[in-house]
Amino acid sequence: GAVVSQHPSWVICKSGTSVKIECRSLDFQATTMFWYRQFPKQSLMLMATSNEGSKATYEQGVEKDKFLINHASLTLSTLTVTSAHPEDSSFYICSARVLIGETQYFGPGTRLLVL
Amino acid sequence: KNEVEQSPQNLTAQEGEFITINCSYSVGISALHWLQQHPGGGIVSLFMLSSGKKKHGRLIATINIQEKHSSLHITASHPRDSAVYICAVIGWNTDKLIFGTGTRLQVFP
C-alpha cells in the first residue's frame, strides 16, 4: 500500500526555537496533504490543507504565522512550528492523498515536546 | 452533539471473540473511513467505503447510507488487534475528514 513517512518521529526542543516536520509520500504523488494535531486521548484536529504549489488553507483558530506549511513538491510537505512554546507540545500527523475522493494515507506522526 | 458518533467508547474482549464497533453520522457523506491507531500513534487506513460492504482478512466494514450508520467487525480477535478504531466521514460539500471520538479496543489472551 501507499506509504507516507514523517521526520522526525519525535523532537524535544527549548521554548522559543522553531521546529520543522517533514511529510513525504514515498511511492505516490500527493496532490493534497493534510496536517493534523492530536492531544492525548482526543481525536485528530485538522490544522491545514495544502495543495502542491499553492498556499495552505488553515482551519479556523490555527495561526498561519505560527504553523508555517510548505508543499513545494508532489512528495513533500513541511510544517514549521515557529517560536515553539510548551502549549505547542502535541502529536502532529500528516496525511496525503492523490485525488479528491480517494483514500488518505497517514504518516506515523511526530511527537513534539517543548520545554 | 458530534457529527460522528461511535460506540462503544471502550471495549474489552477475549481472544477469539467477534467484535463490532458502530459509527453513526448526521451529515450527508461521500465516503466513510475506518482507521486504526496503535499505541505508538501511527494511523492505518483500514477501509474507505461509500456503499455496501468490504472485507479484508478478518476485518469487515459495512455501511447503510439511508440509516447513516456503519459497522466495523473483527472476527477471531487477537491481542494485536488492540488499538483505537476511528470512524471518519467526508461530507458532500467538503474533502475534509470529520472524525469520531474513537473506540479503544483491548483484546486479552
Poorly predicted spans of chain A? none
Oligomer: heterodimer
In which range does the helix fraction of chain A lie? Answer: under 10%
By DSSP, the count of extended strands of chain A is 11
Task: Tell me what portion of residues of chain A adopts beta-strand conformation.
Answer: over 45%
Reported for the largest beta sheet of chain A, the result is: 7 strands, mixed
Provide the structure class of chain B: mainly beta
**How large is the radius of gyration of chain B?**
13 Å
End-to-end C-alpha gap of chain B: 36 Å
**Amino-to-carboxy terminus distance of chain A:** 37 Å
Uncertain spans of chain B: none
Number of beta-strand segments of chain B = 11
Order of helices and strands of chain B: EEEEEEEEEEE
Overall, the morphology of chain A is globular
Overall outline of chain B = globular
Mean of the pLDDT scores of chain B? 94
Give the amount of beta strand of chain B, in percent. Answer: over 45%
- From N to C, what is the helix and strand string of chain A? EEEEEEEEEEE
Our count of helices of chain A gives 0
Task: Describe what this molecule looks like in 3D.
The complex is a heterodimer of chains A (115) and B (109). Chain A is an all-beta fold. Chain A has no helices and eleven strands. Chain A has strands at residues 4-7, 10-13, 19-25, 32-38, 44-51, 57-58, 67-73, 76-81, 90-97, 105-106, 110-114. In chain A, the strands form two sheets. In chain A, strands 2, 4, 5, 6, 9, 10 and 11 form a seven-stranded mixed beta sheet that branches. The radius of gyration of chain A is 13 Å and the shape is globular. With 109 residues, chain B is mainly beta. Chain B is 0% helix and 61% strand. Chain B is built from no helices and eleven strands. In chain B, the strands form two sheets. In chain B, strands 2, 4, 5, 9, 10 and 11 form a six-stranded mixed beta sheet that branches. Chain B is globular, with a radius of gyration of 13 Å. Chains A and B meet through strand 4, strand 5, strand 9 and strand 10 of A and strand 4 and strand 5 of B.
